[in-house]
Design goal:
The complex is a heterodimer of chains A (111) and B (398). With 111 residues, chain A is mainly α. Chain A is 72% helix and 0% strand. The longest helix of chain A has 33 residues. Chain B has a domain of 268 residues. In chain B, helix 1 runs parallel beside helix 8 and helix 1 packs parallel to helix 10. Chain B is elongated, with a radius of gyration of 21 Å. Chain B starts with a helix and ends in a 10-residue tail after the last helix. The chains are: A mainly alpha (111), B mainly alpha (398). At the A-B interface, helix 2, helix 3 and helix 4 of A face helix 4, helix 5, helix 6 and helix 9 of B.
Chain lengths: 111, 398
């Protein structure tokens, strides 16, 4: 009941549809990368262990590769998102409306 | 000639603000990397400076839209608009310097917004400010973003320590995560450059439009503005805001390299995801949330809540304080008449004097790059050293 009330009261100020997407993306990109990087380190340690069986070492290298790809992919997506923001594209298409002196054409603050 | 003089003052103030923004916000990206010994302090700030410079150019976003939708555009036109922007920049810059002196990380973006709001209220009225947009675009993201970054960093650190690092060993994890920190800190620096350098580009472009030097209908940021702003923020970053780096890296919590990596990746992901969906945020607040979350994820008692309280107080005060400073600056110009330009020269001179005064006071309790260097600490031993050796003000600059 309280949650419903808070959601209704905050609706004019919070875009819940964007917020949950931001939270999921942040969880994957933030927590996910930390965990994947840790698994990568662990896998490399196991793969380098001379006492481990060959199959274990190969499997560890494979796991390290997957985790490494995830980490690099997340960083690459971050850079692409930085360069190619959808909001930027919209602004590019409407250059004349993006000047600071004409804010009535935009609704978001970029600061 | 008169308005050209004000325009020149606005450009100089904008560049000066960008410089303060650079050294104020170096800590956002590099504090935890320096605190864990992943990078030498001077190497860290040089990397950050280069990435801030690059970041200022790579985003295709039309420059920063400070105050977009927050103040009535009519108040930003003509010579009065130039004076208003000058007062706003001076208010924001002075607040940046005050918080730097007190070693408190605060948002340069919010300072600039506060400056614009304060000057607008005094120059026009409270009705010239769109309060709904202020709450929606500034206040709500400022409240939510540190919490999201904190939760993300907390989960990353909690899972990493309990499920991975206990098997990996302290030394190997510290060595590995230190390498990772170089990448994650670089990503935060790049993100900072794409967002923050553009703010001043926008302000200077606004001044050029108000002065009739560039067209509002075919608006694009002149290359020289991009170059000057990118250089100013990069130079400011390279100067190294050691005072704030110390607060962010050492005084909030004792950071080990996995925690530093988590704080940086959480911050980068929150900033980039928000930016992607149209909500660019204050990097300072997001990174602080990330650092706090990373402290809580390892050990509940390791966050220094007194320091966090001071910072939260500064965040709450940033917009009103910068607004008051900018309002005072505007009133001073008003004393001399808005068309005399003498007022503009006087507030610029007062800002220089105030900045020099704060810098002189800071020389009494300096913090140096050498004070913060942890690269000599063996991997896995960070918490033992950091827990007992927060840098105390001793002997250096910025």
């Amino acid at each position: 009941m309280l949650t419903v009330f808070i959601a209704a009261a905050s609706k004019p100020f919070i875009d819940w549809n964007a917020l949950w997407k931001i939270c999921v993306a942040a969880l994957i990109g933030g927590s996910g990368v930390v965990i994947a990087f840790g698994i990568l380190l662990l896998a490399v340690q196991r793969a380098r262990g001379s006492q481990n069986r060959e199959s274990v070492r190969l499997g560890s290298w494979a796991l390290a590769g997957v985790c490494g790809a995830f980490v690099i992919g997340a960083a690459a997506i971050g850079i692409i998102a930085m360069i190619d923001k959808p909001a930027s594209q919209a602004k590019k298409a409407h250059k004349a409306k993006t000047a600071l002196v004409l804010p009535e054409h935009q609704s978001r603050l970029v600061a | 000639m008169g308005s050209n003089l004000v325009l020149i003052l606005v450009v100089v103030a904008g560049v000066a603000f960008d410089f303060t923004n650079g050294f104020h916000d170096t800590a956002n990206a590099m504090a935890t990397s320096i605190a864990t010994g992943a990078l030498k302090p001077k190497v860290a700030v040089i990397i950050s400076a280069c990435l801030n410079f690059a970041g200022a150019f790579i985003s295709i976003s039309v420059a920063a839209t400070i105050a977009k939708g927050i103040v009535n555009p009519a108040v930003l036109a003509g010579n009065d608009g130039l004076l208003l922007v000058l007062a706003a920049l001076i208010g924001a810059m002075m607040w940046n310097l005050i918080t730097w002196y007190f070693t408190i990380p605060s948002s340069s973006s919010h300072a600039l917004i506060g400056g614009v709001i304060g000057a607008t209220i005094v120059a026009a009225s409270t009705s010239a400010v769109n309060w709904h947009n202020l709450v929606q675009s500034v206040i709500v993201p400022a409240l939510l973003s540190p919490i999201i970054a904190g939760v993300v960093a907390f989960i990353g650190v909690y899972v990493a320590y309990r499920m991975i690092i206990r098997f990996l060993g302290a030394k190997d994890s510290a060595t590995g995560y230190r390498i990772g920190q170089i990448g994650s800190a670089s990503l935060v620096s790049l993100a900072h450059g794409t967002n923050d350098a553009q703010k001043t580009m926008g302000v200077i472009s606004l001044a050029l439009i108000a002065n009739g030097d560039i067209s509002a209908t075919n608006f694009s940021v002149p290359f020289w503005v991009k170059l000057v702003c990118a250089s100013a923020i990069a130079l400011g970053t390279a100067t190294g805001g050691w005072r704030i780096i110390n607060t962010m890296g050492n005084r909030i919590t004792t950071v080990e390299s996995p925690q530093g990596f988590a704080a940086e990746t959480a911050s980068a992901s929150v900033i980039l995801a928000s930016s992607y969906y149209g909500y660019p945020l204050s990097t300072t607040q997001v990174v602080t949330g990330g650092v706090m979350g990373s402290g809580l994820g390892k050990k509940l008692a390791s966050v220094h809540w007194g320091v966090v309280g001071q910072m939260a107080g500064a965040w709450v005060l940033t917009i009103p304080s910068a607004a008051i400073l900018a309002g005072v600056a505007w009133e001073i110009t008003d004393i001399f008449g808005l068309h005399s330009n003498l007022g503009a020269v006087i507030i610029a001179a007062l800002a220089v004097a105030g900045g020099f005064g704060l810098w002189s006071l800071a020389q009494r309790n300096k913090i140096t790059a050498a004070d913060l260097d942890r690269t000599h600490v063996a991997p896995g031993e960070e918490s033992k050293v950091l827990g007992s050796a927060q840098a105390q003000p001793s002997t250096a600059s910025v």
